[in-house]
Amino acid sequence: MTQRFVLHPDTPQQRLLRQAAQVLRDGGVIALPTDACYVLACQLDDKGAVDRLRTLRGLDDKHLLTLMCRDLSELSVYAQVDNRQYRFLREWTPGPFTFVLPATKEVPRRLWHPSRKTIGLRVPLSPVANGLLDALGAPVLCSSLILPGEDDPLHEADEILERLARRIDAVLDAGGQPFSPTTVVDMTGDTPMVTRMGCGKVDGRIEMSADA
Questions:
Q1: What are the backbone angles phi and psi of residue 44, rounded to the nearest 5°?
Q2: What would the pLDDT profile of 19-40 be if each residue is shown by its tens digit?
Q3: pLDDT at residue number 97
Q4: How many Å apart are CA 12 and CA 124, to the nearest integer?
Q5: Are strands 170-173 and 183-186 parallel, antiparallel or unpaired?
């Protein structure tokens, strides 16, 4: 049975966040509201949960998943970041952005992009997401909650419960969420490049790829 945790969007209840964190520790996959759309989330090092997440999304092992971190110091454990990149990230985090960076050895090899050895990382600006990360004491692996064959993410807890009942372990309900996923910025080149335009707003310092 899928549990539902009803949380205040600005001051989420710590007791419920601790319970949701335990669901993750027990190998669960949860639907989590963020500063962008809902995401599916699980523990980084739980292969069974990661495989379930990919199956729910209809993703193969070539699709880059995102590691959601509490802050830049945690992000730098999992990504190779030079001084220039760090200054850029400090300006653009927290917020609704996913940054593609070279992965460190702390990231399981099976989660790297198979040809580029990269990982997607983000630091959310969301009391619920940040509260869960604090309660867990670790980052989570996540992916936008867009079901196979669909273009738009789910954004209401009622619909998530209806369509994913008994297929996920918990839904964190903090009210309606934005329709758009994060903006994805590839930082592996000389200049940051937007490869997917989402709800994160960018300016002229970030180039746009032809497919964004």
A1: -60, -45
A2: 999 999 999 999 999 999 999 9
A3: 96
A4: 15
A5: unpaired
What are 41-75's pLDDT values in tens digits?
999 989 999 999 999 999 987 788 899 999 999 98
* 3-208: CATH class: alpha beta
Cβ atoms of 31 and 160 closer than 8 Å: yes
Q: Are 96 and 198 in contact (CB under 8 A)?
A: yes
Domain ranges of the chain: 3-208
**Rounded to two decimals, what is the model's pTM?**
0.92
Q: Quote the CA–CA distance of 102 and 113 in Å, as a whole number.
A: 9
185: nearest Cα among 106, 93, 53, 59: 93
Side-by-side strand order, sheet with 170-173: 3-6, 170-173, 30-32, 39-43, 140-144, 66-68, 118-122, 97-102, 183-186, 193-196, 207-208
Query: Phi then psi for 172, rounded to 5 degrees?
Result: -95, 110
Residues in the chain: 212
